Amino acid sequence: MESIELYLLIAGFLILLSVITSKLSSRFGIPSLFIFLALGMLAGSDGILGIHFDNVEIAQNIGTLALIFILFGGGLDTAWKAVRPVLKDGLILATLGVLLTAFIVALCVYYILDFTFLESLLLSAIISSTDAAAVFAILRSKGILLKKKLTPLLELESGSNDPMAIFLTIAILQILLLPESPSMVEWIFKFFLQFLIGGALGFTFGFLLPIILNRLHLNYYGLYPVFTIGWILFLFAASSMLGGNGFLAVYLAGIVANTKEFVHKKNLIGFHDGLSWIMQIAVFLALGLLVFPSQLPDVAIKGLIISLWLMFVARPIGVFLCTMFGSHTIKDRLFISWVGLRGAVPIILATYPYSSNFEHSNLIFNIVFFIVLFSILIQGTTLPLMAKWLKVELKTRESKDDNEDVVASPLFYHTLKQFYIEANSPVIGKSIVELNLPQTFLILLIKRDKDYLKPTGSTILLENDMLLIQCTSESRYKKVLKRFNSF
């Protein structure tokens, strides 16, 4: 029996190797998830390390846990102001777009494989969602900025279309396997109920999170990330148990939480970004271990045909129909179509037929795995070229005159104020972020006894604190001070 140290050694080695080899993404434009999957395949039964892993249930649980934190981290890093103008198009792409893509792909699968149309629809539903995380990693590494509306639209679609694909996959599986499956009317009702419950809980938990974080006043920063982890796990479980869509709930909670200021916000966003990377590496390695590369050549031709149909027919039709009433140009829509990379979610969903003992489980998993590999390799590596060819890059503004002298702007000392916190002030014992100060009202320095403190959002105000404040508006300054005196 191998010791736990051996498993930890292998896990640590694979994680370190994944991080180091991710440099290839920056240098050669290869998506990181492709590298992680390749490493998992190399470490698997058919690979160099020969690690035998065929536990579908464990891989599925790892994938579910990973998706929870990947979606929350993506939502927490999404600016609502940027998403709001493209909200309609993004939601249509994430729902109707997924449905259209799945139906059009099913037509191809029906004629390529010896499947019924409902079985074909199952496979197409599994590969109907996109993963744009790899897209932005490639664009950032190449220094490519997209036009203003494209970036938030792709972020919103990729973050919110996973729940739709998951719902379709589970629904079709139940129709195929259960003798008395719900009727179409019941499925439509269940669909809206899932999204209603998930959306309501996601908004509520996202709204409450900043309020609670600001009032906890924990003695150790390390407990704040622990609290957010528990909060998100509780939200996902509660939403799922109440019949809602837990994945939608955690993604929406992240977006809503980001609209408010809270203590250690920058650090917490960084923490969840790192946690998302850990989860991505873990799930891709696990899924890479799960596949047997020696079986992929048997499905290569059929997988290639389905992949090309998805890239050049199904995805473009879905995008053009869903954005036909929007303001996007034809080149914008073509680029959105090409950004439809398949990622971790389709492979995770491909494990669902296994757990349901579906007849074609192995064939579906191998075809989906091949499609994902082909998609991220072909579409991922050609994204910079497509962005330039379709002219969707955002041109950086050059200065009018490179030799123009820069005039130094003097500090207007009349905007600096001092304020002394007297006894019984209602702000005593509150953190700065709890005061919800306007952006033009800045606390630059705090003199406390003989010490000078650099304030942060989590700084607790105490009696006898002397505040150095900068505020350009005298009326705004007086208005805020009234809140300090009668908060």
UniProtKB/TrEMBL annotation:
It is found in: Cell membrane. GO terms for biological process: potassium ion transport; proton transmembrane transport. It holds the Pfam family TrkA_C. Keywords: Antiport, Cell membrane, Ion transport, Membrane, Potassium, Potassium transport, Transmembrane, Transmembrane helix, Transport. Residues 404-486 form the RCK C-terminal domain. Its main location: membrane. GO terms for cellular component: plasma membrane. The chain crosses the membrane at residues 6-26, 33-52, 58-79, 91-113, 119-139, 160-179, 191-213, 244-263, 275-293, 299-322, 334-352, 364-387. It is a multi-pass membrane protein. This is Potassium:proton antiporter. It comes from Arcobacter suis CECT 7833. The lineage of its organism: Bacteria, Pseudomonadati, Campylobacterota, Epsilonproteobacteria, Campylobacterales.
